[in-house]
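Is this the right way to post structure tokens for a design question? Let me know if I should format differently. Anyway, here goes:
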């Protein structure tokens, strides 16, 4: 029963981050997570809330034995129908052991139990009654080891365990009172040994029972029809006296085809901050890997037509408007609609500096006339270098974004209508990009991509800082149901309690 006092306090959601990797697979992370003492403390509070609710429902197995008691000889005794009446857990802690792991402890616990007693002595004499049992000064210390399974998800096991019981006392009611003191010390000794022998094996069993829940870590999270992002750990966690740093791959891939980009993740480290439970650093590499995947998939293009231009705009996507800047267009194709195909010709590149995220896009703009028979006639192709600023925020458990256009530089690649001045087109094309292309881009960025989380885990009051080479997310966490009711966590730990029945 007491194993729950220890293990349940541990913030099991933290283990979703704690997987080791073979040395041959380790590389620099795209994302780094940091779990602080505040995060550990929140996990302890959840565990205590669950413990207070569930510990009373534990069923304690019946116990029986024989002892030689002077002067009446052998006494057979049994304790049955034991039930927990009250639980006091005044001291509990989850600590960090630098370079090693986690130390989970509960101290000075007190449990009150009631039950029935039966004795038989002199072969034929029987007696019975009820009793109150108190277990005091219970302490448990548990170390947890972590490893990585073949899917990149974490597995856990008990690395070490020690227990001690300060005192076990029984107060008997009913029956012949002169018997109580004769055999009570033997029963107290038997209960102490029974509890001591069972606690650590059950702790080990309970820790192994966490593994099905750890598989809810979104090691491979689908983003959209093109991409998924991988969150397996790439190196062992770094454990200090104040926090745990966790290096995640943080790389986008095409769905079903994990092709590495022609660049690698540079190293980065998080600043010393501890006010939030969890910090997540998302590097340039992660966002650039996304750009590589979308570009490789041919997804970075958009067709722009006049119905995408705001009706209030005086500039239209037709030969009349463009004829003002390139007269030969209006002369060759009077009163016709036009179509622009805007596409990237290189992978977009993201750079991060304090307070600013810049996206550089190299692409082309191909202009066509839509003829009366709906066929397209080419007009010109422009090379384009565009710069945009990005804004990021947290929505639910996703990192979402939006972009604003900083500027565009155009140059003529090919003309099908003769020579013309590019500068004259700058205004109308920049308007087309702002009013038609950027809204589509922002609509996609609004969908965002999921951050690494455990099922039922929510991010609370998340804040974002843009630093050099990465974005720092500082957040608190909670779980569906909250610490007080802890509905979800109760179901997670239920099998621990039932294992004691």
């Amino acid at each position: 029963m007491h194993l729950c006092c220890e293990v349940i306090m541990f913030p099991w959601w933290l283990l979703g981050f704690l997987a080791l990797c073979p040395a041959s697979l380790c590389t620099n992370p795209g994302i780094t997570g940091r779990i602080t003492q505040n995060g550990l403390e929140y996990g302890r509070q959840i565990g205590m809330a669950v413990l207070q609710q569930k510990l009373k429902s534990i069923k304690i197995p019946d116990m029986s034995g024989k002892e030689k008691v002077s002067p009446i000889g052998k006494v057979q005794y049994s304790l049955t129908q034991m039930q927990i009446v009250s639980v006091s857990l005044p001291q509990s802690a989850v600590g960090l052991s630098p370079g090693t792991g986690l130390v989970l402890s509960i101290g000075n616990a007190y449990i009150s139990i009631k039950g029935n007693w039966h004795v038989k002595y002199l072969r034929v004499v029987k007696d019975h009654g009820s009793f109150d049992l108190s277990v005091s000064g219970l302490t448990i210390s548990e170390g947890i080891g972590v490893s990585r399974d073949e899917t990149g998800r974490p597995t856990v096991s008990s690395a070490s365990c020690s227990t001690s019981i300060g005192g076990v006392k029984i107060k008997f009611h009913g029956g012949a009172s002169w018997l109580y003191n004769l055999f009570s010390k033997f029963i107290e000794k038997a209960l102490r040994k029974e509890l001591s022998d069972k606690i650590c094996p059950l702790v080990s069993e309970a820790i192994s029972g966490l593994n099905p829940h750890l598989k809810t870590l979104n090691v491979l999270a689908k983003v959209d029809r093109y991409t998924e992002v991988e969150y397996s750990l790439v190196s062992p966690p770094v454990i200090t006296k104040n926090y745990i740093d966790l290096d995640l791959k943080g790389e986008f891939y095409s769905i079903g085809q994990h092709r590495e980009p022609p660049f690698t993740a540079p190293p980065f480290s998080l600043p010393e901050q501890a006010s939030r439970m969890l910090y997540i650093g998302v590097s340039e590499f992660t966002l650039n890997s996304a750009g590589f995947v979308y570009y490789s998939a041919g997804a970075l293009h958009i067709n722009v037509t006049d119905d995408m231009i705001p009706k209030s705009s005086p500039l239209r996507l037709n030969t009349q408007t463009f004829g003002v800047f390139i007269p030969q267009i209006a002369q060759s194709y009077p009163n016709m609609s036009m179509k622009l195909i805007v596409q990237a010709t290189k992978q977009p590149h993201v750079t991060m500096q304090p307070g600013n995220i810049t996206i550089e896009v190299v692409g082309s703009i191909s202009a066509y006339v839509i003829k009366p028979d709906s066929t397209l006639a080419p007009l010109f192709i422009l090379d384009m270098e565009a710069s945009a600023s990005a804004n990021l925020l947290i929505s639910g458990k996703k990192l979402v974004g939006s972009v604003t256009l900083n500027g565009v530089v155009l140059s003529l690649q090919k003309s099908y209508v003769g020579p013309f001045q590019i500068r004259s087109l700058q205004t109308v094309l920049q308007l087309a990009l702002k009013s038609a292309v950027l809204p589509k881009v922002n609509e996609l960025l609004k969908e965002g991509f999921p951050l690494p989380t455990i099922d039922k885990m929510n991010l609370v009051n998340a804040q974002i800082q843009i630093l050099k080479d990465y974005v720092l997310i500082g957040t608190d966490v909670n779980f569906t149901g909250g610490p007080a009711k802890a509905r979800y966590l109760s179901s997670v730990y239920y099998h621990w309690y039932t294992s004691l029945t």
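Format looks fine. Someone answered above. Worth noting: DSSP finds ten helices and 23 strands in the chain. The chain has a mean pLDDT of 83.
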